[in-house]
Amino acid sequence: MEYNHLLIRYGELVLKGKNKKHFIQKLENNMRKALIDFPNTKIQAKRDHMYILLNGESAEGVSDVCKQVFGIHSFSLALKVENEKEAIKEAALAALEKESGQTFKVTTKRPNKSFPISSQEMNQILGGHLLSNTEGWVVNVHKPDVEVRVEIRKDATYITSSKTAGKGGMPVGTAGKSLLLMSGGIDSPVAGYLAMKRGVELEAIHFHSPPFTSERARQKVEDLAEKLTRFGGKITLHIIPFTEVQQKIHKEMPENYGMTIMRRMMLRISEMVAEKRDILSMITGESLGQVASQTMESMHTINEVTNYPVLRPLISMDKLDIIDISKEIDTYEISIRPYEDCCTIFVPKQPKTKPRREKVNAFESNVDFTEELQRAVDGMETVEFEGSRFSKADVYNDLF
Ligand code: ATP
Ligand code: MG
After folding, report:
1. Exposure check for the chain: N or C terminus, fewer CB within 10 A?
2. Which of 377, 378, 379, 383 is nearest to 396 (CA)?
3. What CATH superfamily classification does 177-386 receive?
C-alpha cells in the first residue's frame, strides 16, 4: 500500500484569527504554483489542515516541495482509506511497516462521531493488529519511536506515521510587497529569502553598468531571482541601466565619497520605482560593519535620501551564517560566479567609512542628477520569473 496523500499542518498562521482564511488561501495558491511539475496532484485546503492528493505523483518529489514553501509547520505522508475497520487496520499496518524503530503507539482521533467504534477501542484493535502482524515492535505509550496517527473524519480516514518539519514562516504574499536591492553577491538573495519567510512578496531591482559589467553578471542576477521563486510565488526583476549615473559620480564627485553617493543614487532610483509599483518598502543585504558602506555612519548618510522603510534582514548576522543560508537555499554557487557587478568596478580605493550627511549634501548640491536618474528609470527592463516556467519572452519594457 503506497502513500496516496500528504497532510500539511499550518504554521504560525493558525494564530491569525479573522485573517486565517486569507492566509490559507495564499498558501493554497503558493502550493499550486510550487507543484507545477506534479500536475496530477489535487489540493484541499481546510481550516485545520491542508491535504494534497498525490494521484500517482511521487511522494518524495511532493515532500521536497513542501519542505520549501513558507507557511508549513510540518507535514506527513498519509494513507487515505474508507471509514471501514478492516481498511483502517490494513493501512495502519502498512504505515508502520514503512518506518524503522522498535516501539510504537497508535493514536486515534474521531472527529466523525457517526463512526461506530470509539477512539479508545480503535487504539486497542489497531495496536493488537500491529503487534500480531509484525516482528520486533513493542508498544510504548510514553515515548514511542513511531506514532501511528489515525484520524477518522467525515469523508475518510487518514493514517500517518512520521512527521517532517516544514520551513515555518508565513505564506508569501501575506505581508505585502517589498523591493529587494539585489546585486549578484551572496548577501542580498539571502536577505530576500528571509523577508519572503515572513510573508513578503518580492520585486527585485538590479543596477548594471554595461559595458563595464557583462551579460554574465546580469545573468547571475536573473538566475538568483529564479532560484528565489522556489519559496513561493512570482518575482518581478527590474534591471536599471546605471552606467551614466556611475560615470557622472566618478567624474564629478570626490573619489572617496563615490561609494556613498552611488548608494544614495541607488536608493533614489529604487524609491522612484517603488512608488510607481505601489511598493511600500525596500530590502538590502546589508550587515552591520561588514564593509565600508555598512557602518552606522554610512547607513545614516545613505538612508537620508528616502523615507521609505529600508528592511535589513541580515543586519546582525555574521558572514559565515549568511553563507550557510545561501548554501542551504542553493544561491551560493551562483553568487560566487566571478563576474563583477557595477559596484566593484567603480569602487574607490579608499571609500569613506564615516561619511557625513552635510558633506555629501554639499557635494550633491553642485551637480544635478535629476535627468540621469530619470533616464535610468526610463531605461528599466522588467523580467518576470514564475518558478521553472520563466521564459525570455516575458521581458517587457513598457511598464510606465
Ligand atoms: P551583496 O552580497 O548583497 O552584494 P555586499 O556584502 O557585497 O552585499 P555591498 O556591495 O555593500 O554589500 O551592497 C550592499 C547592498 O546594496 C546589497 O546587499 C544590495 O542590497 C545592494 N546592492 C549593491 N549592489 C547592487 C546592485 N548592483 N544592484 C542592486 N542592489 C545592489
Ligand atoms: Mg556586493
Report:
1. C
2. 383
3. HUPs (3.40.50.620)
